């Protein structure tokens, strides 16, 4: 099963994700993510046998203790892209308030999971919520204009836990299910 560690956005904030996606609805080749599944990925683990879940759960507990992060408020807003405005693959909303706490959690999770043999990240961690993926260059100028000229606010929410989630690919896109929750 494909596993990752994330912070889910509450339903009230996820509704705002849909509103921001609407700003980009005229940008040709975007494939929008499901706002009801909006989250911030802290660590992607990838294809993992189910019998490894107990050791992952123990590592996540250790990482949360090491990060020393209690419940905190996070604000999501503004727009960005990966990898660059010249070559857009992902359109996202950034984490503004709460980014430092999420980064501490990410770094601790990275240490613990790489110690278990999971691949380390090859890029700098940027806490974000994926809004869409760009299939081709149609609409690139519209996305570029939005990123450079608009700063929509999605909302603020209380982060109380980290979740181990599994991702199953479906004809309509990925479907996420929480496997375990870890309180901060």
UniProtKB/TrEMBL annotation:
Pfam families: 2_5_RNA_ligase2
Positions occupied by motif HXTX 1: 39-42
Enzyme Commission number: 3.1.4.58
Enzyme class: hydrolase
Keyword annotations of the record: Hydrolase
Reactions this protein catalyses: a 3'-end 2',3'-cyclophospho-ribonucleotide-RNA + H2O = a 3'-end 2'-phospho-ribonucleotide-RNA + H(+)
Active site: 39 (proton donor), 128 (proton acceptor)
Gene3D superfamilies assigned: Cyclic phosphodiesterase
Database matches in NCBIfam families: 2_5_ligase (TIGR02258)
Similarity comment: Belongs to the 2H phosphoesterase superfamily. ThpR family.
Protein name: RNA 2',3'-cyclic phosphodiesterase
Gene: thpR
